[in-house]
């Protein structure tokens, strides 16, 4: 099989990691497969073929102008994000609108989704972007079903991903789909990253979703909750660990983290249970105990409330193959 052509769009203000992360993944496909063919032919292009300055100040030299790169149509068009997506050159949007539909696959990293949206390529589709821009994407483009939670989303031949490193996860998923798990695993090992975080994994962990408490006793309690989700995590127990009265603890915890103690514990336990369902073959009853739920039914109610799906169905969806 001849190499698939991946065309990466470059523009002033692009985020360098949005470019280099996926490019390193695609570039490693042929060596990982032990062949000089059958991988990817990665090409970069800017509007006029001129060098671009990334948001961090690096200069990138493209292979082509976009006009030169349009024929023949690439297999995959990859649109990175960055500060340059805030006020993009209208010619870039026009090029995407006219030429991207000719590709077999359209991919965005981070706020590259904003460029796809402006070109009308996400209308009627489910998509994501960096968490800080999901509200803007949904507000400015109501025809898009914006999902702020997952690290990447596949909808037909269009894939969108969250910020920066999520582009590596998505690229690994595409390599796995194109060339198999062994090739993707070899690349991941070389880059010292996970084989891939499946797309439905949340952008935020429970700890990142909440603020970190300023006071050390409260931070210690946050860490304890994370490391011991199956412990007694009632307010009285946590307050004693922080050496505060239950009332003072509850008030201070909410003030400094933005969440009530109960809500924080709930998020940690759901996240812990999700990871066990994703990474182990433990039964639902065993997972529920390890995650601090008294019964599988209690975990089921928590999953329905927070994820809209019961644990068994969550595991099934997680391990289901990605759509082509």
Automatic annotation (TrEMBL):
Q: Which PROSITE patterns does the record associate with it?
A: HTH_ARAC_FAMILY_2 (PS01124)
Q: Which Pfam families match?
A: DJ-1_PfpI, HTH_18
Domain annotation HTH araC/xylS-type: ranges: 219-317
Q: Organism's domain of life? A: Bacteria
Cite the SUPFAM superfamilies for this sequence: Class I glutamine amidotransferase-like, Homeodomain-like
Write out the entry's keywords from A to Z: Transcription, Transcription regulation
- Asked if the record carries the keyword Zinc-finger, the reply is no
InterPro entries from the entry? Class_I_gatase-like (IPR029062), DJ-1/PfpI (IPR002818), Homeodomain-like_sf (IPR009057), HTH_AraC (IPR018060), INH-QAR (IPR052158)
- The protein in question is named GlxA family transcriptional regulator
Identify the taxonomic lineage of the organism of origin: Bacteria, Bacillati, Actinomycetota, Actinomycetes, Kitasatosporales
């Amino acid at each position: 099989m001849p190499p698939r052509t991946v065309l990466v769009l470059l523009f002033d203000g692009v985020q360098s990691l949005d470019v280099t992360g996926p490019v390193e993944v695609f570039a490693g496909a042929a060596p990982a497969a032990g062949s000089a063919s059958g991988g990817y032919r990665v090409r970069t292009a800017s509007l006029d073929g001129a060098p671009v300055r990334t948001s961090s100040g690096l200069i990138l030299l493209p292979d082509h102008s976009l006009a030169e790169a349009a024929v023949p149509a690439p297999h995959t068009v990859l649109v990175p994000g960055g500060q340059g997506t805030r006020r993009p050159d209208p010619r870039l949007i026009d090029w995407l609108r006219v030429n991207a539909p000719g590709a077999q696959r359209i991919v965005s990293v981070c706020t590259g989704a904003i460029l796809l949206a402006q070109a009308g390529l996400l209308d009627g589709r489910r998509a994501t972007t960096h968490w800080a821009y999901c509200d803007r994407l949904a507000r400015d483009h109501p025809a898009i079903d914006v999902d702020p939670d997952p690290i990447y989303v596949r909808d037909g031949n269009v894939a969108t991903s969250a910020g920066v490193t999520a582009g590596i996860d998505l690229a690994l998923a595409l390599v796995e789909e194109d060339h198999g798990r062994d090739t993707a695993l070899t690349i991941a090992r070389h880059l010292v990253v996970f084989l891939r975080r499946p797309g439905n994994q949340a952008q935020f962990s429970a700890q990142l979703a909440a603020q970190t408490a300023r006071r050390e006793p409260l931070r210690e309690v946050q860490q304890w909750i994370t490391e011991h989700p199956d412990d007694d995590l009632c307010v009285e127990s946590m307050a004693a660990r922080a050496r505060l009265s239950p009332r003072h603890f509850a008030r201070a915890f909410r003030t400094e983290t933005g969440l009530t103690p109960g809500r924080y514990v709930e998020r940690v336990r759901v996240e812990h249970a999700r990871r066990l369902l994703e990474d182990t073959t433990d039964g639902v009853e065993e997972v529920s105990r390890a995650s601090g739920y008294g019964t599988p039914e209690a975990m089921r109610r928590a999953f329905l409330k927070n994820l809209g799906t019961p644990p068994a169905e969550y595991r099934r969806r997680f391990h289901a193959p990605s759509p082509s």
